[in-house]
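[Q] Does anyone have a clean structure-token version of this?
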Amino acid sequence: MNTSGKNAPATVIAIVLFAAAVLIAHLAHQASLFLGYVLPGVLLLVAVLTPSSLLMAQQWEKAVVLRLGKLHAIRGPGLFVLVPFIDAVTSWIDQRIQTTQFNAEQALTKDTVPANIDAILFWQVHDPERAALEITDYRSAILRVAQTSLREMIGASPLSALMSERKAADQQLKKEIGRKTADWGVAAVSVEIRDVAIPAQLQDAMSRQAQAEREKAARVILGSAEQEVAQKFLEAANVYARNPAALQLRAMNIIYETTKERGATILIPSAMVDCMNPGGILGLAAVAGQAAPAAALPEGTAIAAPTKADA
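[A] Here you go.
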């Protein structure tokens, strides 16, 4: 950043004036003209004063000019002229967006948890006059204000809010810092919290707590699923109780599902066979046997429908 206003045009003008003064002095010496030395002297004086009188501010700069100790003007950007020995530039104000890193170490949150927080403040000078005249060093003051505001916010917020609501904390910090720096002509553009660090022991405790909460939620979900399954089973039992034929069809479907794989052997308790009305099932088997070719049955074999006594 340019802090002196020195520039190439002023240097070139000073060199040209100096060369002109030397040339005129040489000609005056050859002509033996005493008055011919006055003009070179003036040119030399102007050449010496030009670099400090013709200053230039960059596009993003403002120069605060005091005349005899009082505010005269805010100059820039571009070239401007000062009156030698009367005007003086006391401050060069950079109006670009700038950053300031700040932190708070071992600051206690609302729930008395020590935390280390790092953040970045983006700020900009919008009033060069106030920034130069209202405060000695606005850069240092901005840093102090940011640190103080951060500690105040930490003390007023629980740890959970600082870790889960970063955006809200950023906006709160920006508003508080902007309120304090507004009188200096400085605006807080944005604040970003980069890191929130807590002691390792507390991290372990919070990790165990989070794991316990996840296990609790999983058990609640599993219990709800078991409840829904039990409710469906109860509804199915009521349907089967009202419709015995439905239960028999379900039992037959179970047997089919378990025997459709080739080579499967099923052992069915007699009580379950009674429940599935084996008379009807064996009757179907008999009908299927009668439909088979006679050559497939051994000689003397007879097919008879089973009776209840046979069952």
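[Q] Thanks! Anything notable?
[A] The chain is about 55% helix and 20% strand.
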